[in-house]
Design brief:
heterodimer; A: mainly alpha; 6 helices; 70% helix; B: mainly alpha; two-stranded antiparallel ribbon; 22 helices; 72% helix; globular
Chain lengths: 164, 503
């Protein structure tokens, strides 16, 4: 992606975000008492200022984009373009995160973390599958021992197998 | 309390095995974290933070400071061996460190890096001890208008951590400020972007946001490209640094340390510019000027002294004013908050024992750095052998436990995952994450002090110009903004002239 395109995309995104904040998000999701005499003290004042600044920066980015010469630029995406496989792995990672959130209250943090470790290790194509499985079992247990028995944190245990 | 009383109170806090083990352990973790490219000192500090919750405040903070100091030094190891700086601060070390490694003198370069780092660390710690108390006693006379102008000035530090685009840095900072508005309003107690969820009413958890922003994007980057990290480490060679090398480079080391102290005490400048400035000054004044860039040991000494000189000095604004000097000190503020401490001038009154305990610990950390660093130089081969594709899933699990442990709340883990995707998107669109985090910390303080000042003055804006302190901060803010704009205009002009010259 060229620098120009990047600036333009960000600028347009910032302007849209600013408009969304000013016309939809702040009026609907920020509550303010009706008897405030000075607008500067209103809970809405600060979000409106920031929304305005987002728009100004967005316009600045668009202007900077126009002034930037078109040309190739090496960035994170171009340097590591992995094609379709990368997107599939990213979706897989998103599913692992959603699964972790969904399973944690039911299976408990330790067992969920074991699954999370193992699945992530295989998702990034580890060359050490046996070590990955061993680490997947050992690391969550060690962390559980530390946080539950040393730090006194109530680690979620789940509904099935409970640890001491 | 007299100086001796304060010193004794500090000593009573840290003169125990636990504190020294925390320091030494912290330095070791930091060197390990800094030495692994892609892990970085910032990530090492962020991941260590949850382990400090169960500790005494002083022990936990010493552990983090150890990680910070170890991490800054550790970054030079891969910079010299594989031409990949473990931290941005070590970028200047590559210039002479890597050519030395190519000549089979990696051991000598690493040894000099360690000696220069320890010397600079001691000088930086002494500067902290001398200046922080003085600055804090001055800051005791600050009220809300003074704090508002100070924080406004501190927000200009974002320019220093914005990377190659100030506008993208500004966008990142505004997003951070916006995210900081989530939760109950500070004065009226009304809801702001809470969507009726009680978990959101206290605002988003700082630790979840910072770990999500700094650690999870690395996991996602690894998922996107699992083999990007593959590289080869070099052997250390048989040549080691001698005392004669140290003596010859001593002037450059002291000069670099002082540059580091000066730049480190100004919030937002960070270690990388200091390392480059120290390097260029050493090159300008050295007898071996033509050798610089080809494997000159004085070049390694100067750049490492420059970046380590910053480490103690960044704590001056943190402890004296409660303003983070860089991203890592922003994370360390989290440790203070978790233990119910608010860094700033009042800490020098209410927690003077803790302040002096930290000073003593910092001096000891320089000694720890020397011993742990010596071992780490020889042991790096094994550190580099940890497969990254096992390390990253481990980081993910560590993040889950660490974030959950802050409030015993699974919701925070969700916030961390969400912020991880935000951080990854920012990485892809080259929006720097550091301004986001700094603004997220300073945002509530800025708004709170603004509204308090307006309330106490009966909404009279002249309160923001009420005395010499506010005028001073307005002036330095204006000067900084002017300098930033001028720098931006010059950079843009150079950028436009470059293609013309090339064609």
């Amino acid at each position: 992606m060229s620098e120009r395109r990047l600036q333009m995309q960000l600028g347009i995104g910032a302007c849209l975000a600013s408009a969304f904040l000013i016309f939809a998000a702040i009026p609907n999701w920020v509550a303010a008492p009706s008897n405030i005499k000075n607008i500067l003290l209103s809970p809405m004042f600060w979000p409106y200022v920031l929304a305005g600044c987002t728009g100004v920066v967005g316009l600045g980015l668009i202007a900077a984009g126009y002034r930037t010469a078109e040309g190739p630029s090496e960035d994170f995406v171009d340097a590591h373009d992995e094609g379709m496989g990368a997107w599939v792995r990213m979706i897989g990672m998103a599913l692992i995160m959603v699964g972790t959130m969904a399973l944690m209250p039911r299976l408990g943090m330790v067992w969920t973390s074991m699954l999370c470790f193992a699945l992530t290790a295989f998702l990034v194509k580890t060359r050490h599958p046996v070590a990955a499985v061993i680490c997947a079992v050992v690391l969550p247990l060690v962390l559980y021992a530390f946080f539950a028995h040393v730090a006194g944190v109530a680690i979620p245990q789940g509904n099935f197998v409970r640890l001491p | 309390m007299s100086f001796i009383d304060s010193l004794m109170a500090g000593l009573s806090l840290v003169a125990n095995l636990e504190s020294f083990l925390a320091l030494a352990g912290g330095v070791a973790i930091g060197v390990f974290g800094g030495a692994i490219p892609g892990m970085s000192a910032t990530m090492a500090v962020a991941l260590t933070l949850p382990f400090t919750f169960a500790m005494q405040p002083i022990t936990g903070i010493l552990l983090l400071l150890g990680v910070y100091k170890g991490g800054i030094f550790g970054g030079c190891i891969p910079a010299i061996l594989i031409k990949t700086p473990g931290t941005p601060a070590s970028s200047a070390t590559i210039l002479d460190g890597y050519p030395m490694a190519e000549k089979g003198e990696a051991g000598r370069a690493l040894g000099m890096a360690l000696w220069a780092s320890c010397t600079a660390d001691v000088i930086s710690n002494l500067a902290l001890i001398v200046f922080a108390g003085w600055l804090a006693s001055f800051a005791l006379s600050f009220g809300p208008p003074e704090f508002f102008t100070l924080i406004l000035f501190s927000l200009t530090i974002i320019a220093g951590v914005s990377g190659d685009s100030l506008l993208r840095g500004a966008l990142s900072a505004i997003l951070g400020l916006l995210l900081a508005t989530v939760g109950l309003d500070l004065i009226y107690g009304t809801n702001r972007f809470t969507f009726g969820d009680p978990n959101m009413m206290g605002g988003l958890n700082f630790i979840a946001v910072l770990i999500g922003l700094f650690a999870i994007p690395e996991v996602l980057a690894m998922v996107w490209h699992p083999t990007a990290h593959l590289g080869k480490a070099r052997s250390l060679g048989n040549n080691w640094v001698s005392f004669d090398d140290y003596k010859k480079s001593f002037r450059s080391i002291v000069r670099g340390s002082l540059i580091g102290v000066f730049l480190g005490s100004i919030p937002g400048i960070g270690a990388a510019p200091s390392a480059f400035l120290s390097y260029s000054e050493a090159r300008r004044k050295s007898k071996n000027k033509p050798n610089f860039g080809k494997g000159e040991v004085e070049g390694v000494a100067a750049s490492e002294a420059g970046n380590n000189g910053v480490a103690g000095a960044t704590l001056i604004p943190l402890l004296a004013l409660g303003v983070p000097g860089d991203v890592i000190t922003a994370i360390i503020i989290g440790a203070f908050m978790i233990h119910g401490l608010q860094p700033g001038p009042m800490m020098f009154v209410l927690n003077v024992d803790l302040i002096y305990g930290l000073f003593i610990g910092l001096i000891v950390s320089s000694i720890c750095l020397f011993f742990v660093g010596s071992v780490a130089i020889k042991g790096f081969k094994y550190v580099a052998d940890v497969p990254k594709r096992l390390l990253i899933p481990g980081v993910l699990v560590l993040c889950v436990y660490g974030v959950y442990a802050v409030n015993n709340n699974i919701f925070d883990v969700g916030v961390m995952f969400a912020m991880g995707w935000v951080g990854y998107a920012m990485m892809r669109w080259r929006i720097p994450a550091a301004p986001f985090l700094i603004a997220f910390i300073l945002g509530p303080l800025l708004e709170d002090n603004f509204r308090q000042a307006m309330l106490m003055s009966g909404s009279d804006w002249k309160v923001f110009f009420r005395g010499p302190i506010t005028w001073f901060f307005w002036t330095v803010t204006a000067i900084t903004i002017f300098a930033i704009v001028r720098m931006g205009v010059n950079a843009a002009r150079e950028g436009r002239n470059q293609p013309e010259k090339e064609s």
